[in-house]
Design a protein that fits this description.
Elements: H1 2-17, H2 19-48, E1 58-65, E2 69-71, H3 75-84, E3 88-102, E4 108-115, H4 119-123, E5 129-130, E6 145-149, H5 150-157, E7 167-170, E8 173-181, E9 194-197, E10 209-210, E11 213-218, H6 224-241, E12 248-253, H7 254-259, H8 262-294, H9 296-304, H10 309-342, H11 359-386, H12 404-439, E13 450-456, H13 465-480, E14 485-491, E15 501-504, E16 506-507, E17 522-528, H14 532-536, E18 540-543, E19 557-561, H15 562-568, E20 578-581, E21 584-592, E22 607-611, E23 619-626, H16 630-644, E24 650-655, H17 656-663, H18 665-699, H19 701-709, H20 714-750, H21 760-785, H22 789-793
Parallel strand pairs: 4-9, 6-8, 17-22, 19-21
Antiparallel strand pairs: 1-2, 1-11, 1-12, 3-4, 3-7, 3-11, 5-8, 6-9, 7-8, 10-15, 13-23, 13-24, 14-23, 15-17, 16-20, 18-21, 19-22, 20-21
Helix pairs in contact: 1-10, 2-8, 2-10, 2-11, 3-6, 8-11, 8-12, 8-18, 9-11, 10-11, 12-18, 12-20, 12-21, 13-16, 18-20, 18-21, 20-21
Length: about 800
């Protein structure tokens, strides 16, 4: 033990005598270990550990249409699936919306989900207090009951233990609180404040109105493929009875639905931090080799004074382990900070309740750093122990250069480091370029200066269409009179927001027979009031906008988007033609440009707009375009709402630009982090190149002095130093570029890219890394070219 402590004290003294080496070595290890542990822990918590019981048996069932892909399901189909299927232990449905909360300060909207019987049990979530909704509460006419989230319980009810049995006023109904759900929300899409039964009051109960998310737990032994076959057979019988409802079925794992497009990006991020760790280990190895070679004379003197080979190895091992352990400890601290910093930037439905640092990856990264330190720290001692006692003691021996094998090994490590950095910087450049292009993709409207606020009218206070329409018309008149407001309207659906309604429809076209075999169009249906397209600056391509002619008793009219018009009437003028939506025949009066529904990463869908004066909704969003600060205008609009009805809640006050930015949260944060790791790889590779070049210069000071004394020019010394290491850097970059080309194809195919790979991103990586490497080589080369020949010839 005394010997070990003595070796550790000596190692500490050596590190204190070389603070530059110690700091760089510790930071290299800490950054690699910290980044890997943090990212893997988040990815593991988000991707690999779903907060549900036996998540591998959970699947999402949805409808499919030829032109619209996967969409939610409708209530009648869900009832038949649950009644007739045998592949599922349970099949449950959920629909997220907003309810008006009364009795807790000013009226406001809170997120509430309607759930079918057995929803919590199917997910394997048990309440922390009370119980879940029972069978009686799921029956039509049953008692109104709800369960609340732990967050709502603590925020609104003070975490009171006697909360059970209390009443909660939601959208005109009094719900009895029967349970409190845990922090890990059982809702699979976003956090909810409360859950109520779906069956007593389904928002829509007709075929073709699709809004439900269906989640099922497979029976033991059942497979998604078998469940799909069974449900398709059930649906085929339903389609024969309701041909307008014909559609396909999709059965996907819950993990796929939850993670969606962010999964490959997170996995790519995980690979990137692994590259950073590998570059860090290579960097550390190079530094230890260089440091060990520089101590060859020290080792030889100690051997001549009686030190054994074992003593040298033990001392070197103590120093290497000390560096590895200190770097690992610092890495753990960085990992804790980094994991906590990453979570807020992930979408809310992807955040686990708490992400703990994963001990497996922590042990792996620590073991890798220890192995790197031990192997490359021992090599100089083993090499020195094979040398003769006085070989390295001879006068000037340390200046005569070094073994060719050691130079080759360090050059190989530098080349590998540069290749990995080129690969990682190329990947970061590809993703950042794509994110930039995505951010500048037109959503189909102009979001600048547009604000929105949600107004949901109570069916008790506003029981009919006339009173609801009169409220919104009066409100819009007052909003348009606000100074700075250029235009205003209202819609049941805000792009990149929430709300809206979807449904399939039939149509008439000359020479075309409507199809009932699942090939008819399927579109999103939106209710909008006149002036909506002008306010949003959605281009009206043909026909006219809704106006005062389009009243409830007037002939039903619709405006379709360009994709829908092209789908139904290719090469024909759609104006004046008819389509059937929501059971009514609508005459097409206009065609507008396509609008992306909820993500800049997705193509525009088929869309039809119905006049909000003919289909009056009680839940509408006021959209206004302001010449100045839109927040000032939207605050004035809130006051206009309260002036009309002091008890009317207002919610979701936001800017359209904010909604668009939020829609990219799932890809923005990992992409930016990938850019950060690319920069870190660039920094580590540059340090490696600089360190090896500086060490090489220090070993060749006497040689440079002799060359200068014999007439060599300073430029010759510069070319000699830079040229030697530049070949290694260029070779490493060439290997990295060769790897970057297939990487680019992989990223563009797997992530949110549409175009083929281009050479721009690898070129950017080569230019950046090349410039940094040249600077890193130039600084020690410049110092070498200024060596005084007389000083160099006396240099020991």
């Amino acid at each position: 033990m005394d010997t070990l402590l003595r070796d550790i004290r000596y190692a500490v003294r050596l590190l204190l005598r070389a603070p530059g080496f110690a700091v760089i070595a510790l930071l290299t290890l800490a950054l690699g270990i910290g980044a890997n542990t943090a990212v893997f822990s988040v990815v593991n918590g988000v991707l690999l550990t779903l907060p549900f019981s036996q998540p591998e048996r959970l699947v999402v069932v949805a409808n499919t249409y030829p032109d619209s892909g996967v969409v939610p399901s409708n209530y009648p189909d869900f009832i038949e699936w649950r009644k007739q299927s045998h592949s599922f232990q349970n099949l449950a449905a959920a629909f997220s919306s907003n309810f008006t909360l009364l009795g807790h300060g000013e009226p406001r909207r809170i997120p509430v989900a309607r759930i079918s019987e057995g929803y919590f049990g199917m997910l394997g979530i048990t309440p922390v207090l009370g119980r879940s909704l029972n069978a009686e509460e799921h029956k039509p006419g049953g008692p109104d009951a709800c369960v609340i989230s732990r967050e709502f319980w603590q925020r609104e009810l003070g975490g009171s233990s006697d909360v059970l049995g209390k009443s909660l006023a939601l959208s005109g109904r009094d719900y009895t609180i029967v349970g409190v759900m845990p922090t890990v929300t059982p809702d699979i899409f976003s956090a909810r404040d409360a859950w109520v039964a779906l069956e007593p009051h389904p928002p829509w109960d007709q075929h073709g109105t699709n809004y439900l998310t269906i989640v099922g737990r497979l029976n033991p032994g059942a497979t998604p493929e078998g469940a799909l076959k069974e449900l398709s057979s059930i649906q085929s019988a339903i389609d024969k009875q309701f041909p307008l409802n014909a559609h396909g079925i999709d059965v996907s794992s819950l993990e796929k639905t939850l993670i969606g497009e962010i999964r490959p990006l997170l996995l790519t991020l995980l690979a990137a931090v692994a590259f950073v760790l590998l570059i860090g280990c290579v960097n550390l190895a190079n530094m230890l080799l260089a440091r060990g070679a520089g101590r060859a004379r020290e080792f030889a003197i100690r051997r001549s004074l009686g030190a054994t080979r074992a003593m040298l190895i033990r001392q070197t091992l103590a120093e290497s382990l000390l560096i590895s352990l200190l770097g690992g400890a610092l890495g753990v601290l960085l990992a804790y900070a980094a994991a906590g910093a990453m979570l807020p930037y992930l979408p809310s439905n992807l955040r686990p309740g708490a992400v703990a640092l994963d001990p497996r990856i922590l042990l792996f990264t620590l073991a890798l750093s220890l192995a790197s330190g031990v192997v490359f720290g021992l090599m100089p001692a083993l090499s020195a122990s094979h040398d003769g006692d006085n070989t390295s003691i001879k006068d000037g021996a340390q200046q005569s250069g070094e073994a060719r094998g050691k130079r080759r090994l360090r050059s190989l490590l530098v080349g590998a480091e540069v290749a990995l950095a080129t690969l990682l910087v190329s990947g970061a450049s590809i993703t950042l370029t794509s994110l930039y292009q995505t951010l500048h993709t037109s959503p189909g409207f102009n979001p600048q200066g547009v604000a929105t606020l949600q107004v949901s009218l109570s069916s008790v206070r506003y029981p009919d269409d006339d009173t609801r329409l009169r409220f919104f018309q009066t409100l819009l008149e007052r909003v348009r009179a606000i100074p700075g407001v250029q235009s205003a309207s209202a819609t049941a659906y805000v792009p990149f927001g929430s709300g809206g309604q979807t449904g399939d429809f039939d149509y008439e076209a000359p020479g075309h027979t409507p199809s009932h075999e699942g090939t008819k169009p399927f579109a999103d249906n939106h209710f909008v009031l006149p002036g909506y397209f002008r306010t949003m600056q959605i281009s009206l391509l043909r026909g006219r906008d809704f106006d005062d002619r389009d009243l409830k008793k007037s002939p039903k009219v619709a405006i379709v988007n360009e994709s829908l018009a092209r789908k139904i009437w290719p090469g024909l003028d759609p104006i004046g033609r008819r389509i059937q939506i929501l059971g009514d025949w609508q005459q097409v009066i206009g065609v507008v440009a396509d609008v992306k529904p909820g993500s800049l990463l997705q193509p525009a869908q088929l869309q039809a707009y119905l006049c909000g004066q003919q289909y009056v909704a009680n839940d509408m969003a006021v959209v206004l375009r302001a010449a100045g600060d839109p927040f000032l205008a939207v605050n004035a609009a809130k006051s206009a709402v309260y002036a009309l009805d002091a008890q009317q809640p207002v919610s979701h006050v936001t800017l359209l630009n904010t909604l668009i930015e939020n829609s990219l949260a799932g890809v923005r944060a990992p992409t930016v982090m990938l850019g950060i790791f690319g920069t870190l790889a660039l920094l580590l590779a540059s340090l490696g190149v600089y360190g090896v070049t500086a060490y090489s210069v220090s070993r060749r000071v006497r040689e440079f002095g002799i060359r200068l004394a014999l007439g060599a020019m300073r430029a010759d010394i510069l070319r000699l130093v830079v040229g030697t290491d530049l070949r290694v850097v260029v070779l490493g970059m060439a290997i990295g570029v060769l790897g970057a080309l297939p990487l680019g194809r992989f990223l563009r195919h797997l992530l949110f890219f549409a175009s083929d790979v281009d050479p721009f991103s690898p070129f950017v990586a080569v230019v950046i890394l090349g410039l940094v490497a040249v600077v890193a080589m130039y600084l020690p080369a410049r110092r070498a070219s200024r060596v005084d020949p007389l000083v160099a010839l006396r240099y020991e």
